Amino acid sequence: MAELPVTLADVRAAAQRIGEAVVRTPCLRSETLSRIAKADIWVKFENLQFTASFKERGALNTLLQLSAEEKKRGVIAMSAGNHAQGVAYHAGRLGIPATIVMPSFTPNTKVEHTKGHGARIILHGDTLAEAGREAHRLADAERLVFVHPYDDPRIIAGQGTAALEMLQDAPLIDTLVIPVGGGGLISGCAVAAKGLKPELKVIGVETASYSAMRQILAGEPVATGGDTIAEGIAVTDIGKLPLTIARALLDRVVAVDEVMIERAIALLLEVEKTVAEGAGAAGLAAMLAHPQLFAGRHVGIVLSGGNIDTRLLASVLLRGLVRDGRIVRLRLMIGDLPGQLARVAGLIGKAGGNIVDVQHQRLFGAVVAKRTELDVTVETRGRAHVRELVAALEADGFKVRVLEGAEA
Predict the structure, then answer these.
(1) What is the domain range of residue 288?
(2) 169 and 270, same structural domain?
(3) What is the pTM of this model?
(4) Would 151 be classed as within a structural domain?
């Protein structure tokens, strides 16, 4: 096999270089997730970096290797958020002027945090590619050093230090599951992991709407695009260097849909009490979506980042409660008479349900004048409890439809 553009020695040198300037994040076994997935799961909590993402590793490794003249001119980067924060934070620490070009869809929390590190922020374009073209134009016009988010050997070596630490802390790991955007993280981790344990499996995870690496490795036409909660890996192409490494070292790349990513975000919060952004939860989503690939194995998941908009996180959690039947909407037809609403509320309360919203429908649709349609949103203990609530209401003469959530 031809020599790869990044070696284990490069990753080890990066680890020495970045030293204590980045957090050596914990890699901990999850008893509950292991039980759910029927595998031995270890989680690398890169959301505990100062900027809440692994991107600091590659960014710092690159900045430290700039010449004095390059540092004086300043750097520019294009990023949907995490690379931006990593470059901005460490450039600020090192006294290097930084400009960041971000696509217009970048979550506000990432924009504000990047500004907070002292970088000049430019919002441009509807895709990462458009932001990248603008960043390259500004780099040429202003003689700035372009810091690529993934297609740079210094970036790749820096990201690989995460796997180096994982195998030091959990040497039994025999499978790594790593999110794939442009390929910097997975290629660096593959170099480190395969260098230390050649038999170890490295599996990449992409969103179903942005699965460029999976399509390329399978020899398929690349088609990407669409909305995703995992904007950190919503990348339309793969870097040349990461792809070279991927062809040589990756065992497999799988795709996961939005529902699985949302489930993984909610599960990490409920079980591990930790916040993951969509891209950060992709590894766990892959284990939920493809359990046959991981059953019985010692699996290391890189929780790559935790920068998720709080409003979006709240929506994901509530949608998860609906899917699990822990929030359900019931529709009943009741007589338009005094005491009917109290009667329904009493039955639901007696059965242990907690009413969170009530809506009457008297004027529209096919409701007769002496009856009213009642929608009741109820907090429950789960699917079995929903069936109990429905049974209690029907036993008292009400006809009930479950509109959302669990099947009754």
Answers:
(1) 8-53+156-319
(2) yes
(3) 0.89
(4) no
